[in-house]
Amino acid sequence: MPHAAPVTAMSAPPRHPHFYTVEVGDTRFTILKRYQNLKPIGSGAQGIVCAAYDTVTQQNVAIKKLSRPFQNVTHAKRAYREFKLMKLVNHKNIIGLLNAFTPQRSLEEFQDVYLVMELMDANLCQVIQMDLDHERMSYLLYQMLCGIKHLHLAGIIHRDSGTDIVD
Question: What pTM did the predictor assign?
Fold first, then answer.
């Protein structure tokens, strides 16, 4: 990710005692108080991702904000597919879903979904740029193929533009 945007803390709205709001760059995160020290680590078509510290489990996590995921049918399908697959797939070589929440309390207010996932030390683009020896490269490839095999056995095809379930 290019230059990391500053993170600015804001006070929690009084009607959301378990949440607080923080500005990450130009994006507002309203998240559970258990997640602290947000730092932007990436963004894409689906949303922005921050690293955070989970004070309950005492581990670092990634939090992905899906802004207005149900604004149209295409976004709704993508959000549903991502949530469903992450919830169903359980494999050591595939990032797992740890938590999901929305700060909104009613369907009329509903806008954002937050997915809390395992945090990786680096993304694939960063790993590819590393100067890895043959043994480490072989092990990395083995891990990726194990994850892909698990998805395929479950009838799931992973592709660059998303993930689909084969009917």
Answer: 0.78
Strands 19-24 and 7-9: antiparallel
pLDDT tens-digit readout, 64-98: 998 778 888 988 888 888 888 888 888 998 888 99
Domain 7-121 annotated CATH 3.40.50.1580: no
Per annotation, catalytic residue among 26, 160, 164, 167: 160
Give whole-number Cα distances, 14 to 19, 21, 37, 65, 72, in Å.
9, 11, 21, 22, 31
Establish whether 54 is a catalytic residue. Answer: no
Contact 55, 34 (CB under 8 A): yes
Instruction: Tell the residue number behind the tokens 């295409």, with chain if given.
Output: 74
